[in-house]
Amino acid sequence: MSHRFKNARRIVVKIGSALLNDLENQRLNRTWLEALCDDVEMCRKRGQEVVIVSSGAIAMGRNALGLGASTLKLEESQAAAAVGQVALAHAWSRALKERGIEAAQVLLTLEDTEERRRYLNARGTLFALLKLGAVPVINENDTVATSEIRYGDNDRLAARVAGMISADCLVLLSDVDGVYTCDPALGKGGKLLPEIPELTPEIWAMAGDSGSALSRGGMVTKLEAARMAQSAGAHMVITSGKNLRPLSRLQTGGKCTWIPAREAPMAARKKWIAGSLKPNGALIVDSGAANALMNGKSLLSAGVSGIEGRFEKGDAVRIMDCQNNEIGRGIIAYSHIEADKIRGNGSDRIEDILGYAGRTEIIHRDDLVITGRQG
Ligand code: GLU
After folding, report:
1. Does 106 lie in the same domain as 31?
2. In testing the pocket of ligand 1, which one of 19, 20, 55 has its CB within 8 Å of the most ligand atoms?
3. What is the pLDDT of residues 32-45, one digit of tens each?
4. In a domain, 271, yes or no
5. Nearest Cα residue to 173 out of 255, 231, 263, 84
6. Do 128 and 218 belong to one domain?
7. Residues 179 and 323 in one domain
8. Segment (H or E) for 192
9. Contact between 153 and 218 (Cβ < 8 Å)
10. Which domain holds residue 333?
11. Which protein residue's CA is at the shortest distance from atom 2 of ligand 1?
């Protein structure tokens, strides 16, 4: 099953605070970080794109501020995050740079991943970074996220990021090496589950039971992350990050639990566009554009002859032919006002007309699904 990791095109690796922080000595575990960066370099050398979701800001900041081990008030943990994030980003940047890789700090809030327009912006930035060869190092923007609207755990943030960028593999590096049938420490013969093909009610019940092994290491949020990853078409794996080079160990058959996806990320994304998003308007396209769409091309402003309804950038819209048949649906890169101004014009005119440069495609082919009859 390690082929799921080796063959992945785009991998998100989530790293828990306990791995990066040497709690006993109250400092960053540099040896571990260096070794992980060797793993990242290995992936990059064979053409894989890597995104890191790194926890550890609060733990690092609390040490620096002398906040001790007691439970922190919200504003204290936000202050700790503000201090710790500087050191965290610096450590990643330095270790990756030594391997010829640029690190890019990306701090996200829940709204950045849920609110459509902000989601599109964050996604665009991450794609640009990957295209430019950088490794995004993501954390929740704890300093500004308020308690009601925050992830609070990076497992689910990492799963959302995996969905956002259509990653095909999500690795959760944890302090447990996977999911067990029951706590091995109880001596009852608890066995590691190498694969959970389905998140059954039994699995959820085990995770929710505070006495079981599954509830350890925040297993509920890990299963929630798995559900999010699955619906986005990403295989998820939970493995221990306690030893050095955990990604190399994973690919040579180290202990782990896989929660596989049933479809590829792009298929999952298209299903979401076609089935879950409520269209807010429509674009009418000419026959040339209709043919191009059927052949898997993006929709350009030149092929749009009319606009119906009101929509914002990031909304779903219907794509109709001149006979009023639905051809497809997609996520539009412009508002109805902008779309109306640029329709019928070539993409090279967009900047002149709007006064700013937008996306070349009015709907990119990755954001578009053909729903009408083909041919
Ligand atoms: N964002 C938090 C931090 O950097 C970590 C959240 C988590 O551990 O999942 O400290």
Report:
1. yes
2. 55
3. 999 999 999 999 99
4. no
5. 255
6. yes
7. no
8. strand 192-193
9. yes
10. 277-370
11. 55
